[in-house]
Amino acid sequence: MRIDSIEMYRVCNPIKHPYTTSFGSQNAFNSVVVKMRSGDITGWGESAPWGGPFFSSCYDKGCFNLGKDFIIPKILHQEFDHPDELTEMLKPLRGNEFAKAPFDAALWDIWSRQQGISLKKAIGGTQEKASIGYCFGVLKSFDELIAGIDKVVSMGYPRVKLKFCPGWECDMLEAVRKVFPDLTIHIDCNSVYTLNDIDMLKSLDKYDLAMIEQPLMHDDLIDHAKLQKMIATPICLDESICSVQNARQAIEIGACKYINIKYARVGGISTSLKIHDLCGQHNIGCWMGGMGESSLGTTVVATLATLPNANYPSDISPADKFYVENLGNPVLTTDQPGTYTLRDNPGLDVVPDFAVLEKYKQEEFFA
Questions:
Q1: pTM over 0.70
Q2: Which residue of 58, 352, 353, 358 has the fewest C-beta atoms within 10 A of its own C-beta?
Q3: CA distances from 141 to 148, 157, 168, 186, 357 (A)
Q4: Is 35 a catalytic site residue?
């Protein structure tokens, strides 16, 4: 594969309702979209790092500028035999995984199209359907939350994730468990707590949670290992896992029993596959997370969720959850709530809706 041309777009796409977590509230998701061409084949990739350095140190403007100044000059007109080679080529650029991810996804799209196979087949997906859960942010009231959970459970979603932060924590769980005593639930703390909160964190064992996602600092492994020894509820790491090395070290010291793999957070599909394999080798649960991507990105997440060691319902937002106008076309839709079936066409099989791209793009760069 020779990379003949590259286009890059920075996009800010409004969402229907504010999405509130411990990071704050947002009214749009910010993403970087990459188009790469090799001969007569085009590949697309998306990364949604958000509009500020809140989830991670990456954000859309920084990713766009790094792509323009460092990644594109490094890969334009280069030859690749396999997408994995891009990860090695970009190693000198430290961190900045969200900036690397859309280029990685676009290269996988090109390669699988050249092979005439679906992205699912290209990465070794074995499950017929991608199993998905539903995530609730911080809402206005417990009644609103319980009504929402009742709706998605009755629709068939197998589990729910609840954002968990000061002001929306144990009282919220008490209210939910009274109504849904047997529902599979886990909470996502988005790194808002420390070991000073150990009494509260220990108290969570009584709620029979599937896991506690990222309770402590975003870059911590050591304190998570200490916490896992003090509580019975499994810990899941998210923000702390940005590389294969992070994952290996977390497993070695017993910092978690699950890993949430977000392909953009770890730099792309290639690294996601390595972390997935590592989890399988060490009997660590893994599942796929999303960042509010359009169908360009959620289709990648759903494809990764068909991997053999993905053993917990993944976070893949239904097409109608966030966006009035979805950037990806065709829009990823569920067979029934709780599952996606991937199409078997070559490549990612999703391209932008160009009218939506034109409407919400903030910057563009062609090379």
A1: yes
A2: 358
A3: 11, 22, 9, 19, 35
A4: no
